[in-house]
Amino acid sequence: MPPDPLVKGLLSGDRIALAKLITDVESGSPRASEALRTVYARTGRSTVVGFAGPLGVGKSSLISRLVRYLRTEGLKVGVVAVDPSSPFSGGAVLGDRVRLDLPRGDKGVFVRSMATRGQAGGLAQGTRDTVRLMEAFGMDVVIVETVGSGQSDVNIRDVATTRVVVLVPHLGDDIQSLKAGLFEIADIFAVNKSDLPGSAEAVRHLREMTTIMSPRSDWRPDVTECSALNATGIEELWKKIQRHEDFVRKESSAHQESRDRLKKELRELLQRKLEERLRSMLLEDGEVEEWARQVEEGKIDPYTGSDRIVQRLSGQGRSKTVSRRSPRLDKGARPRG
User: What is the dihedral of CA 219, 223, 227, 232, to 10 degrees?
Assistant: First the structure.
């Protein structure tokens, strides 16, 4: 067993250990990285479903109904609900947890709210790692609810194997706008509030659109009706999710998408580590700090300054050699910034 007691607790089903490790992920603690390395081999076995869609379509209510249904099937479910952060204070209300109507005290359900903290794409930075911790914990299904800001909620494709885009009747021309964002990521369209007039027309419209769109893979998006209010269509929604999961396991095009996700994740991790190293160098490396100062004072242009910092970051050369070749800005010129 791994030496970290929190990892031991996670793998033995300790909910407190899971909560603490997710907090480590959100704070960027080195312990989180070590824990994720340890449990990585135990991930990838859960069904990970992402729910996206415009504000007000009832994603939280629909997720609540789906979780209740999955519990009747004996499945353990984790929910990651992402809420937007204030651009001023950085805080978040984390209201998704409030909107989720789930049975209290059910040990087979674990809900975690996360703030985006300025992260674009509808997810928080630690969402993917939180999903992996829940997988290692032993959740059969992990559901991720995006911020719900509309077309920008596209990063869910990098986390979930099945993406459900929730819509409601009477969107009208708004459905056309989905082509620019959510339409391309949908594996399933769920028309919620099917008890309202116009639901059948919305389903028909979506099905027509899926027949003429250029498919992202061999899978053509499915369309289903449901009502979180009346708890109808929930079992059918789950069957369509399972159908897509079967496709993902069997089809080569889906395997390529999985490889592409891992490749993108590697690039993002490298970028994050390089940014962390650069921030550290700006604080601790005197030469880098001097170049930054020269750029601020207009003594060298920002292109030369950035080239030198990159060379320093990669361990190539010393500043003294390059410094004598440093071009100065023309007298009277102002640095752009």
Answer: -80
Neighbours of 45 (CB within 10 A): 10
Between helices 15-27 and 127-137, what is the axis angle to 10°? 160
Q: For position 231, what pLDDT does the model report?
A: 94
The total of other beta-carbon atoms located within 10 Å of residue 103's CB is 11
3-state helix, strand, coil in the chain (%, to 5): 50, 10, 40
The CATH classification number of 44-250 equals 3.40.50.300
Mean pLDDT of the chain: 80
Distances (CA, A) of 200 to 171, 208, 212, 232: 13, 12, 19, 14
Q: In the chain, what are the domain boundaries?
A: 1-42, 44-250, 260-323
Element (DSSP H or E) covering residue 30: helix 30-39
Structure confidence by residue, pLDDT tens digits, 214-241: 666 778 899 999 999 999 999 999 999 9
How would residue 178 be classed by pLDDT, with cut points 50, 70 and 90?
A: low
| C-alpha–C-alpha distance, residues 145 and 53, integer Å | 9
pTM for the predicted model, two decimal places = 0.78
CB neighbour list of residue 195: distance below 8 Å, 6 or more residues apart: 227, 229, 230, 232
- Enumerate helices (H) and strands (E) in the chain, giving the number of each: 14, 7
Exposure b/e, 143-162, CB count within 10 A at least 16 = b: bbbbbbbbbebbbbbbbbbb
Q: CA-CA distance, 156 to 286, in Å (whole number)?
A: 41
CA neighbor of 223 nearest in space, from 211, 215, 214, 231: 211
Q: How far is CA 176 from CA 131, 153, 172, 183, 317, in A?
A: 32, 16, 8, 9, 54
b vs e for 216-247, b when ≥16 Cβ sit within 10 Å of the residue's Cβ? eeebebbbbbbbbeeeebbeebbebbeebbeb
Quick check: 87 pLDDT over 80? Answer: no
